[in-house]
Amino acid sequence: MAASPSISRSVPSVVSASSIVSSLLTVQTPGRGFVDLTADIAQFVDEAGAVDGQVTVFIRHTSASLTIQENADPTVLQDLTTALDRFAPENAGWSHDTEGPDDMPAHVKTMLTAISLQIPVIRSRLMLGTWQAIYLIEHRRRAHRREVVVQFVGKTSQG
To answer: Are 114 and 59 contacting, i.e. CB atoms less than 8 angstroms apart?
Structure first.
């Protein structure tokens, strides 16, 4: 079967996963909203000497999450916050309210988004699109200290 004339791809590269490099980001959130982690992840890739492989970003919480979203127009993030609030409003009659009325909706929002992301690294660059950024989404109203594990698996300049 011949390849479609409207699709092209680069020549495949083969990488032996000779290195695993890990770090822990501690993020102080200001409360509900998006925190851009892109520069921190890019700095990790640089410090790890990452050449070709994959970065995994994993948040160690159940009331905050991760996403890759547009970084050009801040109204996108506002609208996404509005959409998540519509999917999981505080006044929905939740049974779990031990930590306050915003806790259970935060768990639902985390379930709807992601706790882990994978981003390819090729030639020492995160392969994000032009308008993409990596965000931590704080679903709780008050500020929190969040931990994010960042791990690169692949070829490094050291190995």
So the answer is: no
What is the sign of the dihedral through the CA atoms of 59, 62, 68 and 73?
Answer: negative
| pLDDT tens digits for range 76-105 | 999 999 999 999 999 999 999 889 999 999
Task: List Cα–Cα distances, 48 to 18, 81, 136, 153, in angstroms.
Answer: 13, 33, 21, 10
CB 74 within 8 A of CB 113: no
For residue 21, CA distances in Å to 24, 31, 96, 114, 133 come to 11, 30, 38, 22, 21
What's the 3-state SS for 120-131? EEECCEECCCCC
What DSSP state is assigned to residue 115? S
* pTM, full prediction: 0.90
Q: Which residues contact 95 (CB under 8 A, 6 or more apart)?
A: 104
